[in-house]
Write a structure and sequence with these properties.
Elements (H helix, E strand, L loop, with lengths): L9 E6 L11 E2 L2 E2 H15 L5 E5 L8 H11 L6 E4 L6 H7 L7 E4 L2 E5 L14 H12 L5 E5 L20 H8 L5 E6 L6 E5 L2 E5 L6 E2 L8 E2 L4 E7 L5 E7 L15
Parallel strand pairs: 1-4, 4-5, 7-8, 8-9, 9-11
Antiparallel strand pairs: 1-14, 2-3, 6-7, 10-11, 12-13, 14-15
Helix pairs in contact: 1-2, 4-5
Amino acid sequence: MPHLDPTRPVHVVQLTDAHLFADPAGTLLGLNTRDSLRHVVAQVRREQPPIDLLLCTGDLSQDASVASYEAFRELTAPFAVPTRWLPGNHDEAQVMAQVAPELVQAVTDIGAWRVVMLNTAVNGATHGFLEDDQLAALESALKQAGERHCLVCFHHQPVDIGCAWIAPIGLRNAQALFAIVERYPQVRALLWGHIHQTWDELREGLRLMATPSTCIQFAAQSEDFKVSEEQPGYRWLRLHADGRLETGVERARDFEVKLDFDSPGY
């Protein structure tokens, strides 16, 4: 990890839920997921300063194929920065590790911060769960963080976001997560994907954030499965040495969303 000037913030970008296929022509609801990711990457490069770290928070693939992960790696290669991946419910952690073993590290120290990547995926299921080894790894990473501020990342949402259909496929043991992070005041924020929409709230001083997909979006506050025609997007973060965090969500404004509801969906 390169040495950073401690007087400036760490510049981070989060990409999530790309849902790439082995087939370059693969689509969700008629939207080519490689094309949308390509547009998001171009948008980041146009409007963000050079970034220090790229966080990719699950469902990078739709079919868990080697070819899809290789495509994701190729499409994000223009950033040429340290990158970290974690698995979502559509991913296969072993295949991810096969394609990019150096990108699946659980702990990354950068500037005055420690970034912890957790695996909430459950084999054969859509919901999330933190197994004992993941909870132990989190506890260890936080205990050994020293004076570093901490950002904890995973895939499944740990809170109710107001979408009834998404609630059952969230993180089933979120209370175990919060029980740990609440013991460590240096944890400044939790960051996840999965919900294909923006989320940003404070819980007793802890910042909770989710980010739009780089492909199709889910409609906010929906009782049943419903997609939105909002454009794909990403999140930027500025991690300051004093523990402050600035963040925002941007969308690929030049990408035209044309959904085909008669084609295969999510």
